[in-house]
Amino acid sequence: VSTTTSLVERLRARIGQKGSLTEAIVEAGHLKRFVEAIGDPNPRWTKEAPPTFLVALAPASMHLDEAEEYGKGWLNGGNRFEYIEPVRVGDRITATGKVADVYEKTGSSGTLLFIIFETEYVNQHGRPVARLRGTAIRR
Amino acid sequence: MTPKLGEEIPELVKHPTTRQLVQYAGAQGDFYEIHYDQDFARSVGLPGVILHGLLKAAFLGQLVTDWHGDKGTLKTAIEASTSRGGRIGAGAGSQRWTAIRPSWRSGARTPTATRPRSVRRRSR
């Protein structure tokens, strides 16, 4: 069994593991800095969060020590957002993440490690506002 | 607004710079060095600094919300990076993204699902 194989096995043991709960308030100043950074001048975003703002409130991935041992660096392999309810200034959002899947795949640029993270965002009324499924790649 | 299948979403052109990447790093809280440190980016096998995948996702969000305005609600958004996408080359002035083949649920009165399936980058 190669080192890489056992490393992937150790990471696969993390599937289903939940991250710590993150709670954050949607602040007008933070929202303003975020929309300036993405360069979206839509006046709607003074009171409402643009589609991807939630990732600025809570990390979209979890820190896994073992993953750092694989390859040299991270790449973002894509994000799928599902929206249920708008997020507005003043909302208190609670995010919970989990490791949804871990696998290795060999492509044209060699073998890569894929870690799928899922995050659910719930507002102060206990209602889910969005879900995110993100793919992190180690290579 | 009743969207037609095959209808094109107006193009959104962005001109990201390393300055914007630093600004975005601060606003999102993602300070991974591949987004602002050329030497670090090259040391992990990248040709140079690259955009945050989630910044590209924000551009796609703008593309769709600009288009539907207050006549629709975004239900699903997907950003899938490609190995060629989103690199800022030395001296490159601008990059252009075009969402192609958007789709939504057939028969829906409003665009309940807008899904830019792929993003094409063109250098200018």
Compact summary:
The complex is a heterodimer of chains A (139) and B (124). Chain A is an alpha+beta fold and 139 residues long.
| Main sheet specs of chain B | 3 strands, antiparallel
Per DSSP, the total helix count of chain A is 3
DSSP strand count of chain A: 5
What general outline of chain A do the C-alpha atoms trace?
A: elongated
What's the order of the H and E elements of chain B? EHHHEEE
Poorly predicted ranges of chain B (pLDDT <50, ≥5 residues)?
Answer: 82-124
Most residues in contact, chain pair and counts: A-B, 31 and 37 residues
Whole-angstrom Rg of chain A: 17 Å
Quaternary state of the chains:
heterodimer
> What is the terminal-to-terminal distance of chain A?
20 Å
How much helical structure, as a percent, in the residues of chain B?
25-40%
Strand content of chain A: 35-45%
Order of helices and strands of chain A: HEHHEEEE
Helix coverage percent of chain A: 10-25%
What does this structure look like?
The complex is a heterodimer of chains A (about 140) and B (about 120). Chain A is built from 3 helices and 5 strands. Chain A has helices at about 5-10, 30-40, 55, and strands at about 20-25, 75-85, 90-105, 110-120, 130-139. Chain B has a 3-stranded antiparallel beta sheet with strand order 1-3-4, covered by helices on one side. The longest helix of chain B has 16 residues, at about 55-70. At the A-B interface, helix 2 and strand 2 of A face helix 1, helix 3 and strand 2 of B.
